[in-house]
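Encode chain A's predicted structure.
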Amino acid sequence: MVTTMTACKGCGGSMMAIDKNGKPVCTTCAGLSPDSSIPIEVEMPDTWKCSQCGKETTTEALLRRWVVIPFANATRGTYYDGCRGWD
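Encoded structure for chain A:
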């Protein structure tokens, strides 16, 4: 099964926010390049690694836990699992 996600063309990060007009916005690189906040569909990798602690998991497990995978970057196969807190 191929699973896709909406990512930012500028940095590959997940489009986790919306602007006042309801359009997706990248919280990582908005306004930094011409490709910032341009949504693209990318194929999700089979395995992901937390960008902070290195814990590995599968796409299937992430989708059971999250509606939107936090700080996901499908092009790098990284996400944040909350290991260092959320504040």
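The first helix runs from residue 59 to 65.
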